[in-house]
Amino acid sequence: MRIILIGPPGAGKGTQAESIKAKHPIAHISTGDMLRENVRSGTELGRKARVFMDAGQLVPDDLIIDMMRSRLRADDARSGFLLDGFPRTTSQAEALDRLLGEIGTDLDAVILLEVSDDTVVKRLTSRRVCSSCGAIYNLTVRPPKIDGVCDFCSSKVIQRDDDKESVIRNRLAVYHERTAPLVAYYEARGLLHRVDATSAKDSVLTYLETLRAKG
Ligand code: AMP
């Protein structure tokens, strides 16, 4: 499987990817996670990216494309990958086509997670993440067992800087302006599948299994 997950921030790309990964051996490649790791470890890329991330803006295409060029060539991506948060602009999508051409592979499907802006704002303002292992919580539907403490590794559970409401509104505007045009890009190639991401946390997995069953 070589799949892209597209959707606004808070559509549940990370959560959907987790449920797919639990069933299928596939490299989950999240540019957001890779960037946050670079910020945490203080790399040059992390220092450059942080300013944009904190403001809810996209990190410049050239930095993202360089980062993905090496990631897609890694051994674990050979037998399949799930791209989460990339591509996010038309020029990233074109760069991805070139990168896949160099590796000699192609995409199987692009899954669009559909969810309203209001749902996104509600979800993201109550989202919390573990500062160490990255586990995702939601104060309304899935809070940590002990307030502020990760169930898995006991580290501190925090709110991402970019999950504050003003930043979320900005990220949504950026999504509609820069990323939504990818829907037409992949629809024209017959790769786009729409999945309602309002409720079920494994809706993409269920959808993929229906697709596979149909052959
Ligand atoms: P995410 O975890 O996917 O919501 O990404 C968090 C932030 O990382 C975004 O708001 C952007 O600032 C940055 N980011 C992640 N992926 C990309 C990308 N493909 N292109 C540009 N910026 C990105």
Fold and architecture overview:
With 215 residues, this protein is of the alpha/beta class. 47% of the residues lie in helices and 15% in strands. It has nine helices and eight strands. It has a five-stranded parallel sheet. A three-stranded antiparallel sheet has the order 6-5-7. Helix 4 (61-71) packs parallel to helix 5 (90-103). It is globular and about 45 Å long. Adenosine monophosphate binds next to helix 2 and helix 3.
Condensed summary:
This protein is an alpha/beta fold and 215 residues long. It has helices at residues 13-23, 31-40, 44-54, 61-71, 90-103, 117-125, 165-179, 181-187, 203-214; strands spanning 2-6, 27-30, 81-84, 109-114, 127-130, 136-138, 157-158, 192-196. The structure holds adenosine monophosphate (AMP).
Task: Itemize the secondary structure elements and their pairings.
Blueprint: E1 2-6, H1 13-23, E2 27-30, H2 31-40, H3 44-54, H4 61-71, E3 81-84, H5 90-103, E4 109-114, H6 117-125, E5 127-130, E6 136-138, E7 157-158, H7 165-179, H8 181-187, E8 192-196, H9 203-214
Parallel strand pairs: 1-3, 1-4, 2-3, 4-8
Antiparallel strand pairs: 5-6, 5-7
Helix pairs in contact: 2-3, 4-5, 6-7
Can you tag this structure with a few keywords?
215 residues; alpha/beta; 47% helix; 5-stranded parallel beta sheet; 3-stranded antiparallel beta sheet; 9 helices; binds adenosine monophosphate
